Amino acid sequence: MAKMRDAQHPIVLFHHQKQELWKTIGWILVAGSGLGIFNLGLGLGHLTATPSFRFIFLFDALRAGLFEEILFRVLLYAFCIEVTGGTELNRVQSFFCLVSMIMPHVLIHFSGTIDIGSLIVMTLAFGLPFALLQWKVNLTSAIGAHALVDFIRFLVFGA
Question: What is the Cα–Cα distance from 25 to 6, expressed in whole angstroms?
Fold first, then answer.
């Protein structure tokens, strides 16, 4: 059985060194804030801003970040590693692995018809950055950035 730690892009929860902790926090703040502001820009044309704070917003954001990053990215990445037998992925395999980590997550955010433009924006602006954070930094950075994006949206538009 293939092991994720031996994979080409091992996904780790976090690194134990203090410098890596600050790097993770930085990625959460930069990626989460940047994508959160971008997300607000996308929503302003369709939703009414009703800024407010409720503690449930924090928990909802954390729940979405944890659940979606683990289920739609880690689990599907582990499946890719298992299918390839843990061998080093070539460019085509890496591309399809990323697609499998991104598309199911993006597609759950659509109800009914899917606008191709929105699908492309969601994939490139949100799916790809979160998947790359897991590959290049760690799982905590992806969960934190995802939760921050949702938290910003909840603060401005409500739940």
Answer: 25
- Catalogue the E-assigned strands of 12-71: none
- Distance, in Å, from the CA atom of 123 to the CA atom of 33, rounded to the nearest integer, reads 18
Q: What predicted TM-score, i.e. pTM, was given to this entire model? A: 0.86
What pLDDT digit, counting tens, does each position of 85-95 carry? 878 888 898 89
Cα separation of 128 and 51, whole Å?
A: 28
CB 65 within 8 A of CB 143: yes
Joined together, the tokens standing for residue 39 give 């997300």
Q: Please tell me what DSSP assigns to residue 113.
A: S
Question: Taking a C-beta distance cutoff of 8 angstroms, is the pair 146, 29 a contact?
Answer: no
Give pLDDT tens digits for 94-133.
Answer: 899 889 889 988 888 887 788 888 889 989 999 999 999 9
| CB neighbour class for 128 (10 Å; exposed up to 12, middle 13-18, buried from 19) | middle
State the Cα torsion 51-69-138-99 to the nearest 10°: -120
User: Which string of DSSP letters, residue by residue, matches 63-118?
Assistant: HHHHHHHIIIIIHHHHHHHHHTTTPPP-HHHHHHHHHHHHHHHHHTT--SS--HHH
